[in-house]
Write a structure and sequence with these properties.
Chains A, B: It is an enzyme of class 4 (lyase). Chains A, B: It catalyses: L-fuconate = 2-dehydro-3-deoxy-L-fuconate + H2O. The structure is a homodimer. Chain A has 17 helices and twelve strands. The first copy, chain A, is an alpha/beta fold. Chain A has a domain of 247 residues: TIM Barrel (Alpha-Beta Barrel), CATH 3.20.20.120. In chain A, strands 4, 5, 6, 7, 8, 9, 10, 11 and 12 form a nine-stranded mixed sheet that branches. The first copy, chain A, is globular, with a radius of gyration of 21 Å. Chain A starts with 5 loop residues before the first strand and ends with a helix.
Chain lengths: 436, 436
């Protein structure tokens, strides 16, 4: 049997100058250059695994530095060795006796962990000849559980409860696989209403999106209340009363301010307010949730929720009504599995964060798994979609009628075109040289 | 008037091979090499400011990389420009539209922010010819408040409430200054009972410490219950029933496990259990606090509490009974001021984390300020002391009869001896070359 020993890890700083056109602009990130720390691992048999974590420009070099520091824990291990005790390997990376000090399990070092482990999962899926979602869906529940580090979450979800959830969801699994292959997973669009866009551009993008079958739209808010009222009114007018509107403040407010501001936007009937305040403020989100519940507005958060311990508390405190997992903020598939299972136990729907570079490509696998093998429900569930930068991927997402169609190529879908990587490498790539 | 423009920032990776003798070993950090990212800033008039953040070995290079990324936001600014709107400058560093993504305000980027701002505060104190604690104590309350970023904490502490606390504490201030200059601030020792120490070494160190006047002792626990019982029993026997014992698990347990384990150690009458579980688990700490209260054991945490939003919630949830601020984990003096004021409002004593490299030198300034200008109380208050590596500092801490004596030299006390820095630079310093 082949050992698939990992003999090499490379990481590159790849940036796209998206700030030039205000793509991705929000109330706290006004000039993002969508970027990735891009990881390639290689086995002694010449097989490759691709992983990445998403960033927004400056600071990507710090994540690259952190990936290099983790590299010593990966190179020399075989894929078999890793996946035969994936929980142990996860803890090796996240609880290194020296490096955990600079986290632990948060910020730069956790983003780097995600990039590395995403590459390991990609390698595993490729070695099985399956797209990642199918690898997960086909995996024995006990094996799945053995990938999760339950440290610090057993007061909310035990290993036995997790196993029980997965075993129960085996019923009807094949039916849901078939349904997904046929219909895809419902998506919503954030591409129409970035904060830096003009009203005219917003109108045009809305019209186009409606024509393409989109029914769920997210608007960025939080910089200026008058502006927000105008923009929300405009988009609600464009999409009509029956389509879904969500609003996203990207952490702009304090707790009291969030409640006042969102109350002023309630007449536009948003389904949720996303990231109303600090991503660390569990009790603040709980207070906001409580205040907005009578208005029929839920709270959504998670794209900057840095680990399972935080999600555990958001769920315990009823601080969110929509769980927005992120494929690169959490510690890869391993930690996302823990969060999907906790969300199911607490009966809160998961609506992933996506967009950026590669987040759509990655997270579609997780949400397909969630539907097929955990939640078995599409109620109040949808996955974010942003129509940028997909052309740089070897297996870009396929959207049909506002649904994510399940990926078919083996792996985790985040292999980038080598030409794109080279052209956008920072600072030496052609694109950046031209801008200097 | 001199502008004191900052024209240069350098940062170095300085490591001490403490793991060779198990100094600093605990249940989660079994082999720490005490280290710092060491920052020097220089003005156009040749004045220097020194700052650092503490790390435990591998990963220090990542923090160094982050300091370099922040450097562009500092170099070119004058000291006057910074301190005339310190809140604005704080937010410039912590909320950069691109770099905040890899935090925000947590992990590597926050540790780097601390190192940089510690150097700015050192420069400020030197330029006023005062030790930092005296700069703070003499500062007008309104000016102090203008250094704090209240974003995300106004639901717990408003600017007006903070000002009110400082104004009230003006009464009796000079008396407390005199008292501190005479008696010093009470300290406890962690040097006797690191996890890797033998019973014989522990006994000897305890005897020495008692002879030197120490009355408060901390023991590391959490790796093995039988071991803990033996060690706690031994140390309680050594120090007698009237001295104070604290225990520290360094995040080893899940919530339920923490309660069971500490209950088994209750007969040794620890004042607190420190870091029983994940530093992110506010609700977990609240559950542990509630369970241990009937046993008379409090919960202490904070050395890995990454920002004011987390401390706010720990206080709101009654999740700790002792606030352990850290001079390098939080965003320097600015963020520590916010936490001291919140702790006072919630009537919870502050007992800082120290040790490592330079943490004692730094945090003594903050706790002196807390006593003189905020809490005006010594009840249940003490500052950690660890007797390692002080010889590498130009103005090392002075301990007399188990009390921190107020520093007299201008600045923030973290200038290191240049020879120590060069010898311990990683990996090219002599100490490390010899070990290779």
């Amino acid at each position: 049997k082949m050992t698939k020993k990992i003999i090499k890890l490379t990481v590159r700083d790849v940036r796209f100058p998206t700030s030039l056109e205000q793509h991705g602009s929000d109330a706290m990130h006004t000039d993002p250059d969508y970027s990735v720390a891009y990881v390639v691992i290689e086995t002694d048999q010449g097989m490759q695994g691709y992983g990445l974590t998403f960033t927004v420009g400056r600071g990507t070099e710090i994540v690259v530095c952190a990936v290099e520091a983790l590299s010593a824990l990966v190179v020399g291990k075989s894929l078999e060795e890793i996946v035969s005790d994936f929980r142990g390997f996860y803890r090796l990376l996240t609880s290194d006796g020296q490096m955990r000090w600079i986290g632990p399990e948060k910020g730069v070092i956790q983003l780097a962990t995600a990039a590395v482990l995403n590459a390991v999962w990609d390698l595993w899926a490729r070695s099985e000849g399956k797209p990642l979602w199918k690898l997960l869906v086909d995996m024995d529940p006990r094996k799945l559980i053995s990938c999760i580090d339950f440290r610090y979450i057993t007061d909310a979800l035990t290993e036995e409860e997790a196993l029980d959830i997965l075993v129960k969801a085996q019923t009807g699994k094949q039916q849901r696989v078939d349904q997904m292959l046929k219909e895809g997973y419902p998506a919503y669009t954030t591409s129409c209403a970035w904060l830096g866009y003009s009203d005219q551009l917003l109108k045009q993008l809305c019209t186009d999106a409606l024509n393409d079958g989109w029914t769920k739209f997210k608007v960025k808010v939080g910089a200026d209340l008058k502006d927000d009222i105008r923009r929300c009114s405009l988009i609600r007018q464009m999409i009509g009363p029956h389509n879904t509107l969500m609003i996203d403040a990207n952490q702009r407010w304090d707790v009291g301010e969030a409640i006042t501001w969102v109350t002023r936007l309630a007449e536009y009937k948003p389904l949720w307010i996303e990231e109303p305040t600090s991503p660390d403020d569990i009790l603040g989100h709980a207070a906001i949730s409580k205040a907005l519940a009578p208005l029929g507005i839920g709270v959504a958060t998670g794209e900057q929720c840095h680990n399972r311990v935080m999600f555990k508390q958001f769920l315990q405190a009823s601080a969110l009504q929509f769980v927005q997992i992120d494929s690169c903020r959490l510690g890869s598939v391993n930690e996302n599995l823990a969060v999907l299972l906790m969300a199911h136990k607490f009966k809160v729907p998961v609506c992933p964060h996506a967009g950026g570079v590669g987040l759509c490509e990655l997270v579609q696998h997780l949400i397909l798994f969630d539907y097929i093998s955990v939640s078995a429900s599409l109620d109040n569930r949808m996955c974010e979609f942003v129509d940028h930068l997909h052309q740089h991927f070897r297996s870009p997402v396929v959207i049909q009628n506002a649904h994510y169609m399940p990926p078919k190529d083996p792996g985790y879908s985040c292999e980038m075109l080598e030409s794109s990587v080279q052209t956008h490498q920072y600072p030496q790539g052609q694109v950046w040289k031209k801008l200097q």
